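Example protein as discussed:

>
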Amino acid sequence: MTEKTTREAPISYRPPHELREQFRARVEESGLSVNAFITAAVFGEDVPKPARRASASRADVARLLVETALLNERLKGLAGDADPALLEDAVRDLREIRAACLKALGRSP
């Protein structure tokens, strides 16, 4: 028989309810895992540089927003020739893309 080894219980942190969103935002902004973020905050060590993330520029997101509007108009022009269910699916997808673009620009849909 193999001998079982027991692991130490993990240390957990639950921020106060009113600070949870701020905590999550700071972790997200840092680009670190929650564990790395808390370790750096507690021990005051230099925070390792987060992995590079490709970020879309505001101009790119705005351009995509314009393109979704143009595609929506083209789809409406095809209404008589296309399968109504497929057309509705495509329009719904465009609405989701539009909402994501607006959110990336800090605006509400």
Q: What stands out?
A: The radius of gyration is 23 Å.
